[in-house]
Amino acid sequence: MLVKINKILIVLLLLIEVNFFSLFYFPSFISNYSNYLVKYLSLFLIIIMLLINLIFSNSLYSKLTFGIPIFFLLASVVIITIFSSYHYSQTIFGTGRLSYYYFIIILYYFLLYYFFSTKNIHFLASTIRLIGVIYSGILIIQILLYLKTGTFFLNTSSTGLNLSSNILDNDTTIFISGIPRIQQPADFIMFSFLITNIEMSNKKQRISFKDIIFYVLQLSYLLFISQTRMYIILSALIIILLVLCKINSRKRIFLGILMLVGIGIFHKYILYKFGFFSENRSASTLIRFEELQYYIPKIFSNHGFGIGFADDMKYYFLNHGTFYNADVSSFYFDDIGIMGNMAQLGILGIMSIIVLIYYLMNFYLKSNNKIIILFIYLYLFVTSISLSVLNVQRIIYLPLTLYFVTSLFKQGNNNNDVL
Predict the structure, then answer these.
(1) Ranges of the chain with pLDDT below 50
(2) Whole-prediction pTM value?
(3) Which of 53, 122, 149, 332 meets the CB 3.0–4.6 Å disulfide criterion with 57?
(4) Rounded distance, CA 293 to CA 290, Å?
């Protein structure tokens, strides 16, 4: 019975993350506690899951493996929260509302202790992939309908896909002109695409037609609808890694060298095509360089505690720096990936990242599943540049990635198929 309850709660948590496929307009009292940038409901559900299992479950499936880096990170968040409350004359409760989302990482404890059987790992991976495929299919249908009729059946308000008239009117497409960018679902679908590739690389039998359809649906969304440049680059790198995984070692070396030469020859075209330094999306690249210049010195400010968790109402310019134009602030922690997290958490943030990297490398060196674990490490590395998994929008993917790293490590070392 408890196993079924855990599975239901896990599915509910994932559906909350995809906003129930943006199919519904929820009342404001619900959307105030759960949306793209607010995760109160997700954290509440994770705490409920942990409490239920602490009370009613007698068995622990696995020993903690990333327990120390997670504890170090959460302890750092608590210290910076207390410091910020004192330094900025804020209440502990008010400051906690700015830092609470970090504690979504405790999902890792639930997954490792109570959801680590082979069946449960396979269930979670399959559920993530299925939700990503369904969401991709819904979004593709929505875009086709929009191109034909100009109408939307999904929730496009600020509590849903957040498609304002400015977004619809501003054509920043990379591949097909006229398709509006729908970015918010990209975080989940990119993660589901990662899981899909791990499953395909780990398959001993032939890839089925259904697998190909699932693959194409997710990739189509990422390329043509999300149009998030870092996710497109990450998708390409993951596909390359999948191809290298499926061929023998001699061909792998030759193909790897060929790909590197190709990137070297066409890198200018790639940078131009993705608008990093040209076209109408180059401004975001230039702003990020300015953001780095502003935020990096802040890592060592306040005696090494960083900016911390300062309330926007009182310290807006401290958090967001100067203005790019008269109406829109240009600087956001989220824009510069892991560096933004370090600017908030200061030296403790740097130490937390170093401890996590140490454990990740230790796992990799001891694992017999090195190539497959590389998929997750590639994901963590690329997203750290501008789409950090420590940001509120993507924080849930950190415990999930650590969970799958652990499962792949134990699978490789025990010669068991988990994913």
Answers:
(1) 326-327
(2) 0.93
(3) 53
(4) 5
